[in-house]
Amino acid sequence: MKIIYKEGTDEIIEKKSRFIGQIFSIKDEEDAAAKVAQIKKQYWDARHNCYAYCLGDESQIQKFSDDGEPQGTAGKPILDIITSSQVRNCLIVVTRYFGGTLLGTGGLIRAYQAAAKKGLEACEIVDAIEGVRVLIDTDYNNMGKIQYICAESDIPIEDIIYEEKVHMKLLVPQDFYVQFVHKITDAFSGQIEPIKENEQKYSKTTDGNVILF
C-alpha cells in the first residue's frame, strides 16, 4: 500500500488538447467532492474535469466521472491508473482544454491515462508500513547504544522523554518485531525488555520525516 506524501500536477498536449493531471491525498468522500468542486471552479473554462478516486486500505470505495466525455473514456481509465499504482486515499482530476481535434475512444483513453501518470510522477509517494509502537525505558548510559541499533535497523524513533530514566518510543515493522526484540534483549543481556504498546501504520519520507496514519 502506498500513500501520497506530496501532491503534484503535470500535463500533456495531445493533438492540441491540453490535459492537466492533478493528484490529491483525500480523507473521505466529502473531501474528494470538495476538491473536485474546487478544480471545477478553478478551471471553469475547461471542456471537461474528469476524475477518479479510491479510499480505504483495500480501495473499498471507488468512484469516477467522465464529466461529459464519451462513457468509459476518462473516469474509468483514470481509476485504473490509481489501482495499478497501489496508491490509496487518492484523487486524480484530469482537466481537458479541447484543441479542436477529436481523439476517438482509444485516443481519449490513452490521453487521460497519460495525464494521470504524469501527475503521479510529479508526486512524492511513500510506502505504508504495518508497524508496532514499542516502548523502551532505559538508563541514560544505554541510550546511545539503542539509538545505534535503531539506526542500523532503520527503526524510526518517534519520541524520547528525558526523566529519571529515558523513555523511548519506537516504530518497528511488524515483520521485524520479534527479531528486533531479540536484538535489544541480546545487546543488553536481558536487562532491557521492549514493550509492545499498539499496532501503528507509518511511512518514512525522503526528507526523514515519519507520518502516522
Structural write-up:
By secondary structure, this protein is an alpha+beta fold. It contains five helices and twelve strands. The strands form three sheets. It has a five-stranded antiparallel sheet with strand order 2-3-6-4-5, with helices on both faces. A five-stranded antiparallel sheet has the order 9-10-8-11-12. The two termini are 12 Å apart.
Which structural category fits the helices and strands? alpha+beta
**What proportion of the residues is helical, as a percent range?**
25-40%
Rg calculated over all Cα atoms: 23 Å
What is the spatial order of strands in the main beta sheet? 2-3-6-4-5
Which regions have little confidence, pLDDT < 50, spanning 5+ residues? none
Largest sheet: 5 strands, antiparallel
User: What is the general shape?
Assistant: elongated
Can you tell me the number of structural domains?
A: 2
CATH topology of the largest domain: Ribosomal Protein S5, domain 2
The N- to C-terminal Cα distance equals 12 Å
Q: Which superfamily, in CATH terms, is the homologous superfamily of the largest domain? A: Impact, N-terminal domain
Average pLDDT rating: 95
| Element string (H = helix, E = strand) | EEEHEEHEHEEHEEHEE
CATH C-level class of the largest domain is Alpha Beta
CATH architecture of the largest domain: 2-Layer Sandwich
Strand content: 35-45%
Give the strand tally: 12
